[in-house]
Amino acid sequence: MKQVLIPVTAVFLFVLTTSAALAQGPGSGGPEPQQPQQPTAVPIDGGASLLLAAGAAYGWRRMRNKK
C-alpha cells in the first residue's frame, strides 16, 4: 500500500501546484520613456580618500611587521 501511496501523492501534489502557476497575459509594456535625466552627482573624494589612506597604512604596517 505504501508503494502506491507515495507516487500517487507525489503526482497529486505536482498537479495541484502546477495548476496554480498560470502564466500572465501580455501587459501594457510599462511607462513611456521621457527626457533623459541628468546623472546624480556623487561625492567620491570623501570616503575614497579615507579608504585609500587606511589601505596604505595597513599595507605599510604589514610590510614593517614582516621584517
Automatic annotation (TrEMBL):
Residues 24-43 are annotated as: Disordered. InterPro entries: PID_CTERM. The chain crosses the membrane at residues 39-60. Keywords: Membrane, Signal, Transmembrane, Transmembrane helix. Residues 1-23 form the signal peptide. It comes from the Bacteria. This is VPDSG-CTERM sorting domain-containing protein.
